[in-house]
Amino acid sequence: MTNNYSFEKTPYMLYSEGIDPIKKMESGIKLKSKISNLMISSAIKQGGYKVIKDNELIIKSDRPSIYIANHTRFQDGPVMRTQIPNETYLLVGIQKLRMIDKLFFNTTVTMYVDRASKEDRKYAKDFIIKMLDRGHSFACFPEVTWNLTSDQLMMPMKWGYITEAKEADAQIVPMVFVYDIDKKECHVTHLKPIIYSNQKIDLNEENERIRNEMGQVILNHPSFVGLGINKQNTIPDILNEYPYYEYDKEQSYVLKKK
Questions:
Q1: Tens of pLDDT, residues 148-169
Q2: Assign residue 102 a region: left if phi > 0, alpha if psi is -120 to 50, beta otherwise?
Q3: CB of 68 closer than 8 Å to CB of 172
């Protein structure tokens, strides 16, 4: 398996080459954490949207976290980094990237996943649980790719983040990004952290509950002006902002509702 789009390899790729992925990924975390602020500031400026935090995030600091957010555009990665500790691993799917974005992800704490590989995805899940047990935290976009629909506040989410949180006794920290296109602002709303401990849940029902709660935040936000890709921000606008987005390939990763 070759990594055609990104400089760094997934944990499964490292494992397949006889390299200890935990040792490899932990070895660079201190240096990357130190230079993250500079890289994040540069990426936010280049992305063109000012980040505005609508409320404060209050979490339990005695346990690892899985931060999740909705996903609509390329700016979401840098925005997510402004809301999480520098040492948190941001999950990024292998994809075609501009050189400046490769530099951003490869110099901040990132874990790549090959979404097209079943073996890579399965190994990633087990790896994340091991890393959570070691005290590390993660951030991801459960919709897997950009929501470019015209009729959904959020696309269906994959519920792996829930099973990982339950197995590692980690907390889920949802947040919602709403973009004001006219003012060039991204508003971030933090939701109450979720801790399951030994609570029994239906994964599908809980995943839909979280998705609906996040969707309501989008719907009720003053900066939101219409369903999905809103009246001020069409699909061509977003794709023109980031022409490297491989539409057909990326949309093939969208979870199909049964």
A1: 888 889 999 999 999 999 999 9
A2: alpha
A3: yes
- Give 139's Cβ-side CA count (13 Å radius): 25
Question: What structural domains and CATH numbers belong to the chain?
Answer: 11-251 (3.40.1130)
Low-confidence ranges of the chain (pLDDT < 70): 1-7, 226-234, 257-258
Closest to 155 measured CA to CA, from 104, 208, 103: 208
The structure's pTM equals 0.93
The answer to whether 44 and 100 have CB atoms below 8 angstroms apart is no
| Cβ(96)–Cβ(5) below 8 Å | yes
| pLDDT given at position 228 | 45
Residues 6 or more apart in contact with residue 107 via CB below 8 angstroms? 32, 35, 36, 39
Residue identified by tokens 């849940």 is: 201
- Exposure string for 46-69, b = 16+ CB within 10 A, e = fewer: ebebebeeeeebeeeeebbbbbbb
